[in-house]
User: What shape does this take?
Amino acid sequence: MARYQELADALRGQIASGALPPGDPVPSADRLAHEYDTGRDTALKALRLLRREGLLLLGRDNVVRVGPVQLRTARGAPERPPTIVDVPPEGVVRARMPTPRERDELGLPDGVPVLVVRIGEDEEVHPATGTGMRWPTG
Assistant: This one.
């Protein structure tokens, strides 16, 4: 994976966890480059990627900030039955925004998150819309 994508994933994680809440300024490219031991151009490329995804916005004060949470109105019944993913006890599920490659592969429009199921070293990526998770009971 390219360094800018790794940096973008790290920032996505901070946004998803709430460490970088909506409206908060994002560290400068220079600071990100220093913190993540990468070049300034790499940091700028990661920030541009997250801006294209709608996670970051450039404010009137020319400060890059975490974008607002996008609320979507509920629609009628889904066009197709949901996909149910069985998650084993050792599985970990997290939500994040997809990479451009994942968006293309899954045919997702901008702004639709994905659910990542991690089992050991393996990861499965599923669209968050139309996917349900089932954990074993008992």
Notes: DSSP finds four helices and seven strands in the chain. The radius of gyration is 17 Å.
